[in-house]
Amino acid sequence: MLSEEIAFQRADAIRAAALGLPPAACAAAAGISAGLFADWCARDPAFRSAVDSAKALADTHGSGAAVSAGGLRLVLNAIKGGASFADATALIGVSLLQFRRLREENPKIHALVDAASSMRRRQKTGSAKKRSTHKGYRLVRRDGT
Fold first, then answer.
1. Which helix (H) or strand (E) holds 115?
2. What confidence category does residue 19 fall into, taking pLDDT thresholds of 50, 70 and 90?
3. Out of 69, 72, 125, 132, which residue is the most buried by the measure of CB atoms under 10 Å away?
């Protein structure tokens, strides 16, 4: 019997397939390597059938959007984790040009991508402010006297 964690990872991979995401994105959504995802598909016919069925469902009933919400989440997490824009968009099978157009057309997506990029920069430089260990009050002069 599968451990609970593996069962959850497999469910995440199948959910990603149902969103129409390619195998690399299914693996990323499950938090596993693409090689392990391929191994699961090769060794477990029931899992492979579930992935294929979910992919067929997405192909039949897809929204037609270039990037699904799940795909956008994977791209944002990849950018936050340090991936280049090209690598992050390739993960979900979308060209960099398509993603740039989407970003230009939608201010909310633009803001989310900017936020993920700034989080990456903060993690890289270590410039995130550390909280003071002092638990007390701080006096601030507000009236200019």
1. helix 107-125
2. confident
3. 72
Max Cα distance, the chain (Å): 76
Closest CA to 116 of 145, 88, 139: 88
pLDDT band of 69, cuts 50, 70, 90: confident
Those residues whose C-beta lies under 8 Å from the C-beta of residue 130, and which sit 6 or more positions away, are none
Structure tokens at 136: 């007390």
pTM: 0.63
Using DSSP's 3-state secondary structure scheme, residue 15 falls into helix
Label residue 130 by pLDDT band (50, 70, 90): low
Contact status, residue 12 vs residue 31, Cβ threshold 8 Å: yes
Query: What six digits make up the tokens of 114?
Result: 């900017």
Residues shown for the chain = 145
Under 8 Å between Cβ of 88 and 71: no
| pLDDT, position 135 | 66
What token pair was written down for 50?
């579930």
Q: Dihedral sign for Cα 103, 122, 83, 62, please.
A: negative
